[in-house]
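Hello again, I could really use a second opinion on something today. Take your time with it, there's no hurry, and the full record follows here:

___
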Amino acid sequence: MSRDLQIGDVTIPGRVLAAPMTGITDLPFRRLAARLGAPYVATEMVASAELARGRPDVVRRAAVGQGLPLTVIQLVGADAGKMAQGARMAEQAGADIIDLNFGCPAKEVTGAACGSALMRDPDQACRIIAAVVGAVSRPVTVKMRLGWDETTRNAADIARRAESIGVAAVTVHGRTRKQFYTGAADWAAVAEVKAAVGVPVIVNGDILSADDARAALAASGADALMLGRGVYGRPWLPAYLERALADGTMLEEPGRADRLAIVIDHLRASVAFYGLPLGLKMFRKHLGWYVEQAPWPADPLERRAAKASLCRLDTPDEVEAALESLWCGSVTQGCNSGVDLSSQSREAAVA
């Protein structure tokens, strides 16, 4: 398996990508994951109409900055003209790739005829694709599901039409919209999309480990894979799975000292980006996942109690002190061992 993935004129130095996720893949998270080795981390889903109006929170979701190997901005919307306008703004902001969301299952999104609702209206989906491809010079990609429900699995047909319009790659989550996130992702069903197009196909859904990654690629025949919920509390996972797929090396999950550095970097970057109190509020969901994913405290009940306690703290200093106590208080070697994300990256996080 080649280490590179070619999407239009963009060479991605890896085939394990991190999905766009609202409330998750903001600029602090993307910078952190990139420093940990992720080759591709997309922005949060950006509403094209609200981006064009300049709504502050939506503009912030599309934020670009230093410290990223490339910038992928994902747009969502139902109106072809507004999607084209949003795409032009994304290109002007520095997007290397513009991704179109035809897969979000959330009711507030599908209720506005956006996201996976467009899989019920392939003609409108193609009008949007054509408008965006015609509006920008950057590669345009599409992220979709298998279909709206089991009776309308039309991902292969939409992908075929999208390719003919000029889409440079397609990502498919192995569920229908009706499934939301229930059941198991059907990686084998993505093989039909792979057979239908010549552009790269990326498989998505339920990929949490190296074994999952290998199985998803084998079942789908896809050119690459995309991680979603697997990165919750594990921003290093794209780089770790990349290494496992490339040469079979199974890296150990970060230890206490390394994780502490990662979590504190993320906290400080979030506060620097959003300010207080919003930065701490935005970080709390990540903090909860970091604690859930950590192997300590060993007892699950203690871990849940620690998570609840940490997420009630009111200042970043209190969070840092509590983390030191929780993760390092009983470690004889301390938490000042050399890690990649110490002083240099902390300075970068707040730059």
The chain has 15 helices and ten strands. The radius of gyration is 20 Å.
